[in-house]
Design a protein that fits this description.
The protein has one domain. The chain is elongated and about 90 Å long. The longest helix is centred in the last third of the chain and has 55 residues, at 176-230. The protein has helices at residues 3-22, 33-50, 53-56, 59-67, 75-92, 98-101, 107-117, 122-170, 176-230, 235-243. It is mainly α. Helix 2 packs antiparallel against helix 8, helix 2 (33-50) packs parallel to helix 9 and helix 7 (107-117) packs antiparallel against helix 8.
């Protein structure tokens, strides 16, 4: 579980509640079922209308990936593993990697190394692994676009909710107390819409893009490392090549 993400959500919600209390607003107005229905169901409808059924049904899986804190592709650890495997292969031959493959958790690396051990041409290995990377990018692009769509729809639906609330308020002009309560409730939908759009959905889309970039970088390092091992490149040369793909702060361990 990514607790840092949960902390961000709680902070965002807390800022709204505390801000209302500081301004002297009654936070009970936030408990507005009508506003919640308009925003949540309306946003869901907007997403359903924007994506095919099979893509819409992937939302639970996308949320699982979003809240997961599993670091599947740690670039530094990947380079260390590849350099160690290059030493093994130079000493005992490429076939010696076969016994290492079985204990690996990284399916992408296992797939590439199996092709190396089987003597597949490097051009074909690159083509297959680059296809895997493109497929991953497309899956992540879908998840980000779903949240971007939801983030664009919810603030507009918040305005719609305010209009609906004001229409209801205009039907109770004779009761000043009820009128004031309904006007306050009308703008709760706008608050929900803006919060859901700009504190939840758009940030979720950005987070998915960052996770995708991290995974793609890790997979690219694996691809280049595997091909370097196959070519018989010196372990130190492999390390130098792969470290060049890291961010400056990640290179400290190799200095």
């Amino acid at each position: 579980m990514d607790f840092f993400l949960l902390i961000g959500i709680v902070l965002g919600l807390g800022s709204v509640i505390v801000g209302m209390m500081v301004k002297g607003a009654n936070i009970e107005v936030l408990l507005n079922p009508a506003a919640a229905i308009i925003i949540l169901i309306g946003t869901s409808a907007a997403v359903m209308n924007s994506f095919p059924r099979e893509e819409f049904l992937k939302i639970p899986k996308i949320l699982g990936a979003l809240f997961s804190d599993r670091k599947k592709y740690n670039a530094v650890e990947i380079i260390e593993d590849i350099v160690e495997m290059s030493r093994t292969s130079r000493k005992n031959g490429l076939l010696s990697l076969e016994q290492l493959i079985e204990g690996m958790d990284n399916e992408f690396m296992k797939k590439g190394l199996r092709m190396v051990v089987d003597g597949i041409e490097p051009e074909y290995i690159r083509e297959v692994l680059e296809g895997e990377i493109e497929s991953l990018e497309e899956r992540h692009r879908l998840g980000a676009s779903i949240f971007t769509t939801a983030g664009g729809a919810s603030p507009t639906l918040g305005v719609l909710g305010a209009v609906v609330g004001l229409i209801g308020a205009l039907g109770n002009l004779e009761d000043v107390g009820k009128l004031a309560h309904m006007i306050a409730g009308a703008f709760v939908a706008t608050l929900y819409g803006i919060f859901f759009g700009y504190v939840i959905c758009h940030p979720f889309a950005s987070r998915l893009k960052r996770k995708s970039q991290r995974e793609v970088k890790g997979m690219s390092i694996i691809l280049e490392g595997i091909l370097a091992i196959q070519s018989g490149m010196n372990p130190q040369s492999i390390e130098n090549k792969l470290v060049g793909m890291l961010e400056p702060k990640e290179r400290i361990k190799f200095q």
